[in-house]
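User: Fold this; tokens only.

Assistant: Input:
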Amino acid sequence: MSDEVRTLAGATVYVCAADGPKLDGERAAVDVIGCSYASRPAVVAIPVACLAPHFLTLSNRVAGNAIQKFVNYGVAVAFVGDISGAVAASKALRDFVRESNRGRHVWFVADMAELEAKLATQ
């Protein structure tokens, strides 16, 4: 698989390949932003399969630092896939996901259909 550009709800979405490099920190986030830049996406969709194993452990700040890069570069990001196990195991992550999903720049969605529905309401 390779990264692709899709249109969902009239918005350009850069979709990272599920078998692509792991998002394991700030450098990886900048790499994704750079790869997506030419398509000028409304949002970058990153499958949860691309998240490093420790990404959702908020205490290590990997997710926060990576997400901050997307925000700094003005690129919205959606993490696509099931993270229910991690959310159930961490109140901090549950709160972070809930607050992120209320905003316009960082989302956690179950699948591309949910991302499309979210984009349709923006």
